[in-house]
Amino acid sequence: MEVSEDQKKAASKSLQSAFGSAICFLTLLLIGVLAFSIRLFSVIKYESVIHEFDPYFNYRVTQFLIKNGIYDFWNWFDDRTWYPLGRVIGGTVYPGLTLTAGSLWWFLNSLNIPLSVETVCVFTAPIFSANASWATYLMTKEVKGTGAGLAAATFLAMVPSYISRSVAGSYDNEAVAIFALIFTFYLYIKTLNTGSLFYATLNALSYFYMVCSWGGYTFIINLIPMHVLLCIATGRYSSRLYVAYAPLVILGTLLAALVPVVGFNAVLTSEHFASFLVFIIIHVAALVSYVKGILTPQKFKVAMTLVVTIGMAVCVTAVAVLVAAVAASPTKGWSGRSLSLLDPTYASKYIPIIASVSEHQPPTWPSYFMDINVLAFLVPAGIIACFLPLSDASSFMILYIVTSAYFSGVMVRLMLVLAPAACIMSGIAISEIFHVLTRSIKFEKNKSSGNPSSAGDITTVGNSITQSNKRKSEKQSEDHNLKEISYQRPSKKSKRKEKENSETVLRRFKKEKRLLVLPLEVSIISVVLIVLLGGFYVRHCVWAAAEAYSAPSIVLTSRSQDGMHVFDDFREAYSWLSHNTDNEDKIASWWDYGYQTTAMANRTVIVDNNTWNNTHIATVGTAMSSPEKEAWTIFQSLDVKYVLVVFGGLIGYPSDDINKFLWMVRIGGGVFPHIKEADYLRDGQYRIDSQATPTMLNSLMYKLSYYRFIETDGKGIDRVRGTEIGKKYFKLTHFEEVFTTHHWMVRIYKLKSPKNRIRGKLKKAKSTNPTGNGRKTRVNPWH
């Protein structure tokens, strides 16, 4: 009879486990559908089109890859960009996104699903957002259990910060890189928990994919060494930690060096030195651990002194070599963007090209509420939950959230790195809160029904992995206390006395657990409030996906009493360039529009969004800042035929070239000292009205933006700056207007041809002066 009861219990438990697994799988499937579908507002409301600026370059590169193959892609020299320098695409681009989309296109076409390259590029980001949600579930499950994993995956599926970079049409590196980032961290934690060399190898391969996808891989190769060093410093070294870290450094570095854009930078730049230093330290720790296991305490002391001495000597030597290797570099081996993260004022002082990018500016406090919303209030609770108990995995999550919070405060773009950490911490917090509340409700319900035994069970038995971890921690503490008691009383004790001590410890732990049980009313109200908070989060995320982040920058919209107005001026201008200019004509514009001009107009540009050559960009900035004649001379030297400017003064578009003009002055002045920012400011203020400086009013950018602007309303009111322009009536002498879009957003000018110099035969003529002194008057042959 007892056997049959045990069999029934085992069968019931197996059925419950299978049912729970099925529910978990269905929930994950729905989370993936949610992550994909919430990013389709841009396609539903507008059309299937590539967004922003950088994605157009990625789209153009993907087209070349699919058309010409992988070998031509690696060796592609693009003469359409950075004229007359050109650009080697295979050696200057992170190929992960391009290879991923190309492989996806080849796979779909092999299944006879004939999708265009553009369609695949548009939907790559939503697909990988679902993958990122599932990776978040796996990572959080390793830290705090299934419930926390499902909550974290749900949060990430619709967090606005991630949506901003993964809507349909946002074909940028971050579309696949965030998935690679989370999955690499998951495999590291998985290896840390299991000590499996198989997962360690997968971790190195995942890191390789991250290196291929985004320059943010340096965050991984610095965060993981920081965690390893933390574990060693706090006495948590283990063989599992060694297996998790050592293969990553060796295999990961070798694989990273295979990526052309990284190459030997994987071992030569300061961003990677921390991993090598910690690699030495972990071997010292491994040696100490091994020696400790085979020697007696007395011999271990001697050996420890020797190991520490040699280890310190090796570390000092390694540090000295590294310092000597990077001392010759002005930036000490760090890249400009890395120095901007370590010193937020560095870019504004020394590299204005980095500081000029809007996404490199520090965020405001409302940005956090906009991008992570209520998660900002749940993160502290998640950090506290990670300390109960503190494990290697939870300590990694604490380190992750702290470092990503710092970096997001330096650059608004890195809110994207903070988002997964915030979602994981919030998922842990929600899971723990719901566990306490539901346990409290069940306890009070059983208590009111007169079933104290069940109530007692509620306080001591948990259903989640978190509670299992807590029980393990409590058991270890109990054993430790009992050992202390037995050590304090070395005399023989009776079994009865030991049992009493054990029961005392258990009663103390049970009493502490009962303190976590809340009153029924408080628990119910708390559950309702959390559900309402979740509803508010969902509503905010849907609004952000539908309104804030769905509009493609190349097609603008506005709403008024007359309804929605669409401004398609960018594509109108690029279409005009494509159909009305020669194939070999060169187009000059500010670098923001280089990628779009090359991809949509198929014309050669002087500078683009790659910003690899600061001098070339400064030359264009100097031309825009100079008077018309000097600007014409500069553009002639670059073989420019047309100049494109973006102007928003008529319709109120704030991201126009007039608002960016001071950055052109600063970047140009950084290379050409005769361009001084003070010459364009009146009493420290940037003005375009009658109080503007003569240097500002005579600059090429001012003239190309406001030429004939007075004809629009008769007053010359700039709706962006909210003022009347200072110089209304003027003519262009070296440029001629050839095209202006319907809403005056894009204006295209053609450089006038230089005047021919004709030397004719001069007739010799005698002339007499009025005084009659007989002197001849020389005629100037150039007039």
TrEMBL record:
Q: Which reaction does it catalyse?
A: a di-trans,poly-cis-dolichyl diphosphooligosaccharide + L-asparaginyl-[protein] = N(4)-(oligosaccharide-(1->4)-N-acetyl-beta-D-glucosaminyl-(1->4)-N-acetyl-beta-D-glucosaminyl)-L-asparaginyl-[protein] + a di-trans,poly-cis-dolichyl diphosphate + H(+)
Record function comment = Catalytic subunit of the oligosaccharyl transferase (OST) complex that catalyzes the initial transfer of a defined glycan (Glc(3)Man(9)GlcNAc(2) in eukaryotes) from the lipid carrier dolichol-pyrophosphate to an asparagine residue within an Asn-X-Ser/Thr consensus motif in nascent polypeptide chains, the first step in protein N-glycosylation. N-glycosylation occurs cotranslationally and the complex associates with the Sec61 complex at the channel-forming translocon complex that mediates protein translocation across the endoplasmic reticulum (ER).
Segments forming domain STT3/PglB/AglB core:
584-643
Name the enzyme's class. transferase
Give the enzyme's EC designation: 2.4.99.18
What's this protein's family per the entry? Belongs to the STT3 family.
**Localization in the cell:** Endoplasmic reticulum membrane
Could you describe the subunit structure of this protein?
Answer: Component of the oligosaccharyltransferase (OST) complex.
Keyword check for Ion transport, yes or no.
no
Q: Name one GO cellular component term.
A: endoplasmic reticulum membrane
Composition-biased stretches (Polar residues):
448-468
Q: Which organism is it from?
A: Zostera marina
**PANTHER family cross-referenced by the UniProt entry:** DOLICHYL-DIPHOSPHOOLIGOSACCHARIDE--PROTEIN GLYCOSYLTRANSFERASE SUBUNIT, DOLICHYL-DIPHOSPHOOLIGOSACCHARIDE--PROTEIN GLYCOSYLTRANSFERASE SUBUNIT STT3A
Keywords on this record? Answer: Endoplasmic reticulum, Glycoprotein, Glycosyltransferase, Magnesium, Manganese, Membrane, Metal-binding, Transferase, Transmembrane, Transmembrane helix
Chain intervals for the UniProt region annotation (Disordered): 446-503, 759-783
Quote the biased-composition stretches of kind Basic and acidic residues, using this chain's numbering.
Answer: 474-483
Protein name per the record: dolichyl-diphosphooligosaccharide--protein glycotransferase
The answer to keyword Cell inner membrane applying to this record is no
- TM helices/strands, residue ranges: 18-38, 88-108, 145-163, 175-201, 207-230, 242-267, 273-291, 303-328, 368-388, 395-412, 418-437, 515-538
In alphabetical order, the GO MF annotations are: dolichyl-diphosphooligosaccharide-protein glycotransferase activity; metal ion binding
Q: Name one Pfam family in it.
A: STT3
- Domain annotation Oligosaccharyl transferase STT3 N-terminal: ranges: 24-425
Q: How does it sit in the membrane?
A: Multi-pass membrane protein
